[in-house]
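#help-structures
NK: newbie question, is this the right format to request a structure? protein is Aminopeptidase
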Amino acid sequence: MNWVLLFALILFLGFATTSSDLNYNYYRLPAALRPQKYHLNILTLLDNPEESRFNGTVKILIEVLDNTKNITLHSKDLIIDESQTTLTHVNSGEKKDNCVSSTAVNPAHDYYILNTCQELLPGNIYELNLYFSADLKTQLEGYYRSSYEDAVANETRWITITQFEPASARLAFPCFDEPNYKAPFVVTLGHHKKFTSLSNMPVKETKPHESLTDYVWTEFEESVPMSTYLVAYSINDFSHKPSTLPNGVPFRTWARPNAIDQCDYTAEFGPKVLQYYEELFGIKFPLPKIDQFAVPDFEYGAMENWGLVVYSETTLLVSETHSSLNSKMNVAGAVAHELAHQWFGNLVTMKWWTDLWLNEGFATYVASLGVAQIHPELDYLEMDFFQNLHTIFQRDAMESSHPISRPIQTVKEINENFDDISYEKGSSVIRMMHLFLGDETFRSGLKTYLRRYKYKNAEQDNLWESLTQAAHENDALPKNYEVKTIMDSWTLQTGYPVINVTRDYASGTAELTQARYLLNSDVSRSHHEGCWWVPLSYTTQAKLDFNNTSPEDWLECSKEGRSQPKTINNLPGADQWVIFNTKLSAPYKVNYDSQNWKLLIETLNSEHFESIHVVNRAQLIEDVFSLAWTGEQDYETALGVMEYLHRERELLPLRAAFEKLTTLRRLVRRTPNFGYYKRYINKLIAPLYQELNGINDTFGSIQSQNVLLLKTELVDFACMTQVSDCVSRSKDYFREWRSVANPDETNPVPIEVRGTVYCTAIKHGSDEDWEFLWTRYLKTNVAADRDTILLSLTCTQNERLLQRQLDMIFDPKGDIRMQDAAATFDSVAANGEGWLLAKKYLVENLDHIYKYFYPVTASLAQLLPSLSDKVNTRQDYNEFKDFLDSSWEYLKDIKQAVQQTKENMLISVQWQERNYQQFFRAIRQKLNEVDEK
């Protein structure tokens, strides 16, 4: 520890300290005290943007559980006026002054420690009053300010908002900033009367400020008990759109005044999905109102603050003239996710961040149920869970992955836990559990859990107990099975299995074994034996029973956690296939013997390909290409499975193919054989492209929204791979847009493919095209449109324009908002021409980039994926690995992302060395077969 630095910090904050106060260095707060209630007063001064700040007081009623001589709180970057600190014993209406003899700080854990004059004894209640202040910064965490442009008045308007998850309430007020320290809050906000103030609860009263002219105090009603990370408040001049369902709570949607017309969709969708959750969980929404609020600057997609849900503009606002169906569905998913949190996360909260996935995994899964309920015209459930599975099949196949539930000891580790494993894998294992328990048992167990722990904290074992009880009552599981035994195998260990199915066609049996699927072939499989309790659902060519997703049997683990082979009987003969994991009911891959793969390929390439359910057609493509990547299958078999796609008309199998082929394109784009790849792609998708009228604007005549989504994704892939007229028609659309009199009001480019058209036109266009689109970025009033344009600008092949964009990204006073910086850089790096420029920029400017994001340095993790994706030679791998290793000073806060980046690069190099020749042999063979026909 740097004692000189610590002493300077103490002097700066006005602390008097003794060395004995610093002995406590555990990452969790001491358990001797518990907050009973907070009275939080915040006065916000926004008059001068250069000197905006806030002053506050917090009165905390504290219950003493064990003898202690100090009060340890969290506080970070706050100036505390210790001359006004008071501590009073308030038992039974009697008030006796205690005092604070000294204070200390522990910057490693953001502790602010008050040593008391007299020992605090169990059973007593104390009132602690603290006075504090801080600058209102733009760092996108804690209590910060954001802005928007008022085009009519031609001026910048400022607002404030909070973002406290996971551990940033301590930046706004001293508090017990851990999720298990729940307490009611009484929030009072001081502000100029021209502003509106919002918080978790409805307004109780507003009265004039005692000394500041034109300022008022707005007091809000006392909240229910909640964790500090869910507290929220804002000072703003926004407009709102009310929307209350019959028997529902008041529901308002807020946005800047010049975007309030983009609130119509979510103002209608939000109350409907909230009402669905009340029925699903059997518990009414616990608060008297709910607001959803769109912020111009927001680091995350959205935040589930109880009663005041905050979103980035892109995840809440929908424009009828600019937002595509994909964009609208993303918004629906985000709103459904955050509103699901009002029960899973807010009403019942994890005890510690180890079980973050209980919040995020459940909200992700339940959100898909909510969207599917409100939008039955879409196959949303199938699309969402397949996309989740695709994500985790890639991420969790890395040695550098981690368990869903894992130990957390620092704030940096908490931030790293907000990833695909907590969200998508968490959702996938919950869906698996829903299917093997059945709907009645699943719902019954959830309701018991939520009622039992409402306004409290829980951990995953509490959930398993409630579900096991329901399962045994309903005979959904054998009495000797427990949900904990099954689910611990999925939540407490890293990875997922590949099930190897070896059939004995003479006896009609199959032996099933499991092993962890790993992309890194340098890792010995014997070091990762692992065992998962796998629910086995399957069907045969004769039965074709894909709707039965209940387990026919289980692949079990021994008491020692070792895998036990399973024999399945009564299977058909050598002329019929079998498919395991019907409708992808659990997150595992399946590899068959060569005869079974041959039978599957024969069916897929016949007129009866639709006899295999659409989800399992997608599964076969996903699995066989993953197995070919690691050498557990060959590319002749993989391409054989994909060969039928010229007749496929459903989105999921095509999406699976597009994603696999896009990954392979990245690896082979700059190789001599790339021409073969393009010929193969054209053979596969040109028939469907022509059938759907290519990129021509027939979107309005398409009745099915699933077909609309299919055409959108097909066009995007076709333009990327230069199939048919996709590039030339995109350039025509863009040229037509440039020629209209008022391009900001009139846009002839079809809404559904604007991102594709913009990117394609910029990629194959001129400097003038780029400048035209940049001007549209500066003038658009629609956040989703702004994001689409910004990322499309990175598609240029002009190095000078790419460099210009890189220089703009990390300019604090530039036109690219901080929330968009990482995604824009990643998009430049994903560009074949931009990769070297982006890598060079990162190497030369890492110190500047670090300071730009500080203190939210977790954003650095978003800069690495596309840079690592383009590394596919040993030399490039070693160079970039050396850079990462030598930059630890800046990257130490994103340790997990750095490990995954290194492994991802190595995996790409391994593919080039092991599979490149085999892949193109298989492609040439397929092309020759076509030529011979």
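mod (FA): yep, format's fine, and the tokens are attached above. Residues 895-932 form the longest helix (38 residues).
NK: thank you!
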